[in-house]
Every structure is written in structure tokens, then in C-alpha cells.
Amino acid sequence: MNLPKLFSRRAWHASLIALVTALLLENGQIASAASDDPIAAMVNGEPITRTELLLALEFLPAQFRNLPGDQLYPLIRQQLIDIKLLAAKGAEAGFAEDPRITTRRDFYTMRLIYDYFAATIVQDYMTEEFLHESYANFLENFSGSEELKISHILVMTEEEAEKVVEILADGMDFAEAARRHSVGPSAPQGGTLGFIRRAQVVPEFAKAAFALEDGEISSPVKTQFGWHIIQVSERRSQKPPSFTEMEQKLRVEITDRLVSSAAKEARETAHIELFELNEDFFDGTTVAP
Question: CA spacing 20 to 30 A to 204: which of 28, 43, 190, 261?
Fold first, then answer.
């Protein structure tokens, strides 16, 4: 088994392009291993280090990362040997100064610096205590959406609706009346729609339904679909999600808020000029592959 059998050479190249770019020095040489970074292989006197193996691992699709280490790392090492050999030849051919590479190298470097600096902004705040405080604040502002268990009978005219009201007043079961008289798709189920939130139905229907008490039946209600007679049998409010369910969302929201705040502060002392972005700005231009 070898690495190209796991995924295509094109996919592997695309996923490791940032890694290779980062490893190329301006003089066309490959970065040397740090003294405390174990070496997995030597290629023409240049090391493949543990760090490089772990960086390559970050670019693998998740399904391949679960391979046993004694299978996975030798495969990555073999691919890195090929990359190192061809990258060295490319550097000798002047590719280290190719604008296609230097442009991406500068952009990826800027983005990595941003990512790591943003992480330092967040790390002092992202404590368990702060997360739980944020969750407590979420609970204080949580307003569970009320849901009603609704059944309805749909007919096409007001006259038909009034007749259904009379039948119900004479004692016919609501579900039976729905099966006999409703033209809605819920008729075979006795008109039941299940639990419904206000936003799920048209305003006229919602206004009438959410004004009813449990067990109460509405007067005929007109909507774009026809005439409805509505019954509410039960109501409930949504429970707030648990801390475990909210934790990742809270982390993302806190991170976005802190990084946005830092960027806003930086903008206040920065000199920024904006130029027009019109339909001709990108015309005929692409980033070279």
C-alpha cells in the first residue's frame, strides 16, 4: 500500500501546497531541522523531520488520520521524500522566486500570523469559568419559542366552515369531523398538524391559534388556503440547549467577538485607503495556478 492509492496525486498536491511553500526558503533551500526535532529521513543531506510529518498529517482528510501510526507515517514519509526531491529540483530551476509561489507564500504567511495572533487574543479569555458565565448569560436571555399541538379542518368557503362549526357544536369529535369534511392533507390523520411554532404558519392562522386555550376551538379563520377551524390540544416551550450542546457555538461566538473587537481597535489608528471595486476590477485577471 502506498499513499497515491489512498487519494489522488492532485488532491495530495493541493492539500500540501501551503506546507511546501512554507518550507521553501528564499535561497531555494529546504529549511533545516531544529536540533530538538527528530529526523525521520535524510534526502540528499536534507532532513525530513517529525514536525514535517505532523504538518503533513494536518492536511490529510479525516478518514485517513485514523490509520495506525505504523502504517500512516511511513506513507507520509514516502510522499514527503518525493516532494522534497522535486521541490529541490524546482528550487534549482528558480521556482523559489516564481511569482506564483512567492505571492502565495507571502499570503499564507500573513494568514498564519493572523491565525496565531488571533489565538493569543482569545486564549486568556477562553477559560472554563468564562465559558460557563457566557452560558449563564445565554440562559438569562433565552426565550423558548412556544409550540402548540394543533389540529385543523380546512374547507374552501365560509359557508362550509360555518356548517363544520355547527357539527362540532352538536358534539361530533373534532378528528372525525376533520376526516369527513377537511380538504387539507392532514384530514386522514384527523386534522392533526403536530407541534407548531408561530413562525411556521401564515400570520392569520398563527394569530387565531395562539389566542386559543387548550381544548378550545376557533371560529372560522380565512387564509390564502381557504377557511380553517382550529383546535389546540397542548402547548409547550422549547427547553434551552445544554452547556455541552452550546459549548462549541459559545467558543466560536466569543472568538469572533474578541477578534472583531481587536480588529476594530486596530482600524482606529490605521491609515486605510479604499479604492473602487467595480465590474472591471477583476476583468481578465486570475491567480495563476
Answer: 190
Q: Is residue 130 part of a domain?
A: no
Show the domain range for 83.
3-121
Q: Which of 31 and 161 is assigned the larger pLDDT?
A: 161
Same domain for 110 and 188, yes or no, is no
DSSP 24: B
pTM surpassing 0.70? no
Q: Hey, CA dihedral for 121, 110, 64, 83, is it positive or negative? A: negative
Output 207 or 70, whichever has higher pLDDT.
207
* Exposure b/e, 215-234, CB count within 10 A at least 16 = b: eebbebbeeeebbbbbbbee
Q: How many domains are there within the chain? A: 2
pLDDT at 168 exceeding the cut of 90: yes
Domain of residue 164, CATH code: 3.10.50.40
Same domain, 31 and 117: yes
104 and 167 part of one domain: no
Least confident interval from 89-98, 190-199, 277-286: 277-286
Q: Could you tell me if 7 and 111 lie in one domain? A: yes
Is the pLDDT higher at 223 or at 125? 223
Give Cα separations from 61 to 64, 91, 132, 175, 264 (angstroms): 6, 28, 33, 53, 35
Average pLDDT (21-34) is: 40
Higher-pLDDT residue of 266 and 199 is 266
**Nearest-5° angle of CA 277, CA 280, CA 282?**
75
| Residue 127: Cβ within 10 Å count | 10
* Residue 251 resides in a domain: no
Closest CA to 79 of 58, 102, 48: 48
